[in-house]
Amino acid sequence: MLIDLVQLRTFIGVAEEQHLTRAAERLHISQSAASSHIRAIEDILGTQLFVRTNRSLQLTRAGELVLDRARMLLNEASVFTSFARELRGKTEGRLVVGSSSDPSNRVADIVASLYHLHPLVQVDLRVRQSAGARQDIKAGELDVGIQLGPSVDPAIMHYELTRVRFRIVGPIAWKDQIETASWEDLTNMPWITPLDNRMAYSTILAQLFTSKGLELNSVARFDNAALARSMVQAGIGLMLMRESHALKAEREGSLAISPLAEAELPLHISHLVSRKNDPLILAFMEAAKEIWPALRS
Predict the structure, then answer these.
(1) What confidence tens digit (pLDDT) does each residue in 168-191 have?
(2) In 3D, which of 254, 253, 257 has the Cα closest to residue 239?
(3) pTM (predicted TM-score)
(4) Contact status, residue 284 vs residue 110, Cβ threshold 8 Å
(5) Domains of the chain by range and CATH?
(6) Alpha-carbon distance 272 to 138, whole Å?
């Protein structure tokens, strides 16, 4: 019996989530199917891949070695499929693209350009935060990601689109206090902070506050920036916000901006280095350059 690609994808998901249920939810399969896939791989290989510790699943040494090879095989399968389709003379296939829901990254324009240039390429667009996009690219669940943050993984190739500026904002009722607050004053005010410390917002907050030895008074957390903005407007606390949103809200009189902090992060398109010559990836990058002419790696 041979291990199939679906089983490998499940194995990678469980290894990264360290939890069977979360991996099944991420892969949109049942928990029993995920468990069956793992058992099948272990039976075929004749070795244990996971050990249970408290409430998580940890890879054995054999599992760690299999994980690296599983990722390579999934990536090679994607490239093989793309090249096989290219032999027919036209770029054809399906790309899974992860992006935030913020329209400023212009992902809709890129997809429209892609359809014009390569009408046989179909796109599945999925909402992903930056940290989630990087993880899913390595797991083979996304082909391309558009995300904020520095390029820190040598296995992932990044192309900078632009740099996104951020400001500290708070409820308009606190305007005078926010505009005169020191760094220490800001930390003592209520904050709405990212739920995941891998999110781009967390990176900037660490640069602004943690590096100064300051700890924010977090009263609520979020994993969706639009929901966080609504909490600020409801008067719950301060947050870090994209400057474009902050200035618009300031003009409308709904939020106040601190004059102390201005920070920025690069906005990237990213994909696995091993897929840089994949026809589908090249087609997407061609479309992206139509929308972002200054795009560079």
Answers:
(1) 999 999 999 999 999 999 999 999
(2) 257
(3) 0.67
(4) yes
(5) 5-71 (1.10.10.10), 75-155+267-291 (3.40.190.10), 163-266 (3.40.190.10)
(6) 7
